[in-house]
Amino acid sequence: MKKHVIIAGAGLGGLTTALRLAKRGFEVEILEKNERAGGRLNQVKKDGFTFDTGPSFFSMSYEFKEFADDCGIELPFEFVELDPLYTVNFSNSPKTYTLYKDLDKLAAQFAEEEPDFKEKFQKYIRKSGQLYNDTVDKVIKTNFDSKLGYLLTLATVNPVHLPVLMKTFWKQVEQYFDSAQAQQIVSLIAFFLGRTPFDTSAVYSLLSHIEFVNDGYYNVKGGMYQIVEGLVKELKMAGVKLNYNIEIKEVKELNGKVIALVDQNGKSWKADAFVINADAAVFRGRVLKRKKYSEEKLRKMKWTMGYLTFYIGVNKKLPQVHHHNYFLGTNYKDYSLKVLKQPDTLEKPYYYVNVVSKHNPDCAPEGCESLFFVCPVPNLLYKRNWDDRDKIVNSILEDFSKRIGEDITGSIVSRTIYTPLEWEKHFNLYEGSGLGLSHHMSQIGGFRPANKDEDLNNLFYVGASTVPGAGLPMAVISSKLTTQRVTEYFE
Ligand SMILES: Cc1cc2nc3c(=O)[nH]c(=O)nc-3n(C[C@H](O)[C@H](O)[C@H](O)COP(=O)(O)OP(=O)(O)OC[C@H]3O[C@@H](n4cnc5c(N)ncnc54)[C@H](O)[C@@H]3O)c2cc1C
Question: What is d(CA 482, CA 255) in angstroms, rounded to the nearest whole number?
Answer without folding.
Answer: 22
